[in-house]
Amino acid sequence: xxxxxxxxxxxxxxxxxxxxxxxxxxxxxxxxxxxxxxxxxxxxxxxxxxxxxxxxxxxxxxxxxxxxxxxxxxxxxxxxxxxxxxxxxxxxxxxxxxxxxxxxxxxxxxxxxxxxxxxxxxxxxxxxxxxxxxxxxxxxxxxxxxxxxxxxxxxxxxxxxxxx
Length: 164
Known about the structure:
Elements: H1 4-26, H2 29-40, H3 51-56, H4 62-66, H5 71-79, E1 84-91, E2 96-99, H6 112-118, E3 123-124, E4 128-129, E5 136-146, E6 149-159
Antiparallel strand pairs: 1-2, 1-6, 3-5, 4-5, 5-6
Helix pairs in contact: 2-5
């Protein structure tokens, strides 16, 4: 078996590769357009959404499902690797634009996973047990860029067991 250190190096190398793939997802024209649209004119159905109201929604609620069926969500699904356990796209204000499955929070504004990419940098979280997926995962977040500026963030969670 590989040593603990070499295992960590393998996973870091695999994660670095996934970060590059996530940057590609964030640069997809449908993703950029969806974030631009949400920043300009947020959808009326989500105008008054709060973290508490979002948590109260059922997984199959149309408000949650619609965000997993839009063009940006389809673009993300089409580019994700099998190691991806979750992914969600945020507007500049932290609100959701697209997602693969309902997230635990509506907005991540004020948290590093949104604020760091909004400064144009990549964020990498710690390995943790994710409450929405039930698996050990690590999240990364990349900026969605337009005109040289971060206009949103894309957060992608990876199953640690599937990182190769």
